[in-house]
Amino acid sequence: MAIPRRSHAALEGRLGYEFREPALCETALTHRSWVNEALEPGIQDNERLEFLGDAVLALVVSDLIMKRLPDRPEGDLTRARAALVSEGGLAKAAASIELGNWILLGKGEERTGGRARPSILANALEALVGAVYLDGGLAAAAALAERLFATTLAEADQHVRLDYKSRLQERAQALFQTVPVYEVIGEEGPDHDKRFLVALTVGGQERSRATGRSKKEAEQNAAAAALAELTPREPGGQG
Q1: What CATH number belongs to 163-230?
Q2: Is 54 known to be catalytic?
Q3: What is the rounded CA–CA span in Å between residue 91 and residue 95?
Q4: Which of 17, 86, 198, 225 is 20 to 30 A from 119 (CA-CA)?
């Protein structure tokens, strides 16, 4: 089974990047199942490029998140990055450009739905990032990552906020064998721009107050403040 020579112009249009060396793009899209069935010698699968792309993504996505969340601590940045470069996050980005249509798969993988399998999509996307890095350098790979993750980058703050309440609940149960209590104690502003003030109590003691444009947002903000109070700082951290 010889490797087909294909035009990747449509895919490059979706990537916003044109390869100087088209063979790099071809290799990035070649799954090992295709290589195992191929008759043409010298065909490489995308696993080495995937290895490289994983490292490149860790760097460029970290940089993008730090710029997006300039005031967030390391733990929040780590959680935001994980949401983007996890298998699910990568597969979602791959699906947004219909990457599965271009992947070279063996007959077995094709029959079992490999084109839509999250692991295959995620690995191929990492390989493409690695290929772009080799072809055009770090700036090109960073620009590609910013395009691929535009939507989820815009939601990066939401990713790190969503679990404050659940994390605080776990902490409160461990420390006090109880759960946090949230109470709306004030509202201000017109209906179209209302802000809510929430008081948060843990273990019979008020731990924080916070405002938000909705009750849920105020509760999340209060949970974040209380969690910071109830979480010991690591040795050597700034006081």
Answers
A1: 3.30.160.20
A2: yes
A3: 6
A4: 17
Tell me if residue 37 is catalytic: no
What digits encode the pLDDT tens for the residues 83-127? Answer: 888 888 899 999 999 999 999 999 999 999 989 999 999 999 999
Copy the structure tokens of residue 109: 């993988």
Which position among 45, 76, 109, 126 bears the catalytic label?
Answer: 126
Catalytic residue among 54, 63, 146, 163: 54
Q: Where are the domains of the chain?
A: 9-156, 163-230
pTM beyond 0.85: no
Residue 65's region, left for phi above 0, alpha for psi from -120 to 50, else beta, is alpha
The span from the CA of 176 to the CA of 180, in Å, is 10
How far apart are the C-alpha atoms of 154 and 221, rounded to whole Å? 19
